[in-house]
């Protein structure tokens, strides 16, 4: 798997690629990351990568020529067959919001070229010609696409085999199919009592069936209180059984 990232600020990625549990995947090229600065492909003494928008208005627009030259260099370096080349992804407010099913799909892919926009935006002609998909992190605006690219990289990399210390860790993540798309339950560790607050006794009982039921009930409760729309999706997909519905009925009585 390989991600080529077009960014005017490649230095933003250096600490991320060298930190945390995912660094092993980047160091070994299990998830290869290549950084490309369009300024390196700009012309002239000042190597300009932006200009004022036609029609006036605030801000600057990224020029199409440096982006085209940079993309050409990436495609050549990847030595791709044009018929099977990886998609070019732009992080943009109009994109589909990134969610767990999308991350799982990207985790099974050969990678992509990630375009991190800056300033007021990117010349629309480049988008129309080359962009295959657009992704958003939510209904808010960032200074550039770098944070979104980092989020996608981290989410995809942690799903790769052998990246996490415990191979089953991500199976218990919120939104995971093993949790039927619900939120994760609370977790506890030592000490058993902290500032008068005790760990729920069931977690220390050694009774695995009861522990699993408690965790499921907590997951249902947290999801009902904070993300009820996820419950609706799980119910529509037939993922909730009678025990789940009984728990939810009790929760509804108490809400």
Automatic annotation (TrEMBL):
What is the annotated localization of this protein? Cytoplasm
The keyword NAD is annotated on this UniProt entry: no
User: What are the binding positions for S-adenosyl-L-methionine in this chain?
Assistant: 117, 137-142
Residues of the tRNA methyltransferase TRMD/TRM10-type domain = 1-232
Keyword match Mitochondrion = no
Q: Which UniProt keywords apply?
A: Cytoplasm, Methyltransferase, S-adenosyl-L-methionine, Transferase, tRNA processing
Q: Per the record, what are the reactions this protein catalyses?
A: guanosine(37) in tRNA + S-adenosyl-L-methionine = N(1)-methylguanosine(37) in tRNA + S-adenosyl-L-homocysteine + H(+)
Q: Which GO terms describe its cellular component?
A: cytosol
- An example Pfam family from this entry, by short name, is tRNA_m1G_MT
Q: What is its EC number?
A: 2.1.1.228
| One GO biological process term | tRNA N1-guanine methylation
Gene Ontology MF terms in the entry: tRNA (guanine(37)-N1)-methyltransferase activity
State where it is primarily located. Answer: cytoplasm
Enzyme class, top EC level, equals: transferase
Q: What does this protein do?
A: Specifically methylates guanosine-37 in various tRNAs.
Task: Spell out the subunit comment.
Answer: Homodimer.
Name the family the entry cites. Belongs to the RNA methyltransferase TrmD family.
| Alphabetized NCBIfam families for the sequence | PRK00026.1, trmD
Q: What is this protein called?
A: tRNA (guanine-N(1)-)-methyltransferase
Q: Which organism is it from?
A: Comamonas antarctica
